[in-house]
Amino acid sequence: MDIFPLLVLLLSCMIQEVGAEMKLSPEELTVLRGEEAQFTCSTSNIQWAVMIWQLNQIPVLTISNETGVLPFANPDVSAEKSPDSPGDWVFSLKNTQRDNQGQVTCDLQDIDRRTASLSVQEKGSVKVFGDNELVLKGQSAVFECQAAGWYPEPSLQWKVDDKLVSQGEYNISSEESGKGLFTVTSYHSVTAAKSSHVDCLASVSALTTPLKSSVRLTVVAEVVQDGDDCTVPLAVTASLAALLLLLLLCIGTVLCYRQRRQAKSGPQEAIWFSQSGSGGGSVAEAIGGQFNPGYSSDGPTGP
Predict the structure, then answer these.
(1) Residue 148's beta-bridge partner residues?
(2) Which of 60, 178, 213, 263 has its CA 20 to 30 A from that of 187?
(3) Quick one: what percent of the chain has pLDDT higher than 90?
(4) Is 207 left (phi over 0), alpha (psi -120 to 50) or beta?
């Protein structure tokens, strides 16, 4: 009886059994650029001699079952035994960059290997252009939002008073730069019904909380009725108060000017009236001589 096929079958079963005892987790991991990525390689087979960690099929770290982690040149990689299970090794990649994206492999030499996927995303910025808007009730205000420097293409959403806006109510355009980063631009038109906060949010899957940029939409000439209570917006009240104050200042200025004019002209008019009312005697006294009512400067008169 030929036992060679039986040996091959037995060896294949042993390899499969050993392979089933090896696990690399997580199978997929997504992080932001600059964050730390960690993978755990576990095996119940204590007979392994060398464990090699690879990034995109390039060896970056070697572990000996007897002596531990061997010297390595990359300062961004490290490994240590898992505190929960001494037979597991945790591989850490610090300061992840986009060129680290790809396959992460744990290779137990001459036994088996497992491969996981690493994705590195880029967090950019988000901004709503323009200042706070001041519009009349019923008019439309158009807001522009730009999310720049993201990878992959970010999702972009609008909120008005913390309520998500339907995607059919705004448009989105995207372009990719030479560095593989994406810029997304969106315009959203809001009909001024009441004063509101307008938010633009941008996010990628590795970002736990979306980035947000906000502006204030203030509606003027707005009256909010609640039963018998009417509230006039502050903008209208402030405008009326400013006009009234300006009018009072103008009236006060005119009155003050007229009073000062009367104060200056009063003494001169009193002196003139006193001289004209006292006749020639007062004039003679004023010039210090005698007054001759028959004298005329036109020359001698006839006999």
Answers:
(1) 125
(2) 178
(3) 56
(4) beta
The pairs formed by 232-235 with CB atoms below 8 angstroms and a separation of 24 or more are 233/195, 235/134
Question: How much is the pLDDT for 10?
Answer: 52
Mean pLDDT of 114-143: 94
Flag whether the pTM goes above 0.85: no
Does 296 score more than 80 pLDDT? Answer: no
Which among 149, 138, 236, 239 is positioned nearest to 185, based on CA atoms? 149
Average pLDDT, the chain: 82
Mean pLDDT for 246-267 is: 81
Write out the DSSP string of 191-253: E-SS-EEEEEEEE-TT-SS-EEEEEEEEEES--EEETTEEE--HHHHHHHHHHHHHHHHHHHH
Q: Is the dihedral of CA 216, 217, 218, 222 positive or negative?
A: negative
CB 21 within 8 A of CB 32: no
Which residues pair with residue 58 across a beta bridge?
55
Angle at 97 between CA 92 and CA 103, to 5 degrees: 65
CA distance 234 to 178: 49
Q: What angle do CA 38, 42, 44 make, to 5 degrees?
A: 170
Sign of CA dihedral 57, 102, 95, 37: negative
> Which of 115, 112, 114, 110 has its CA nearest to residue 16?
112
Helix (H, G, I), strand (E, B) or coil at 149: strand
Q: How far apart are CA 124 and CA 198, in angstroms?
A: 20
Confidence of residue 262 (pLDDT cuts 50, 70, 90): confident
Residue 180's contacts (CB-CB under 8 Å, 6 or more residues apart) are 98, 151
* CA–CA dist 229, 299 (Å, integer): 92
Please list, in sequence order, all residues whose beta carbon lies within 8 angstroms of the beta carbon of residue 47, skipping any fewer than 6 positions away.
Answer: 111
Q: Which residue is it, tokens 């003050």?
A: 256
Amino acid (one-letter) located at 192: A
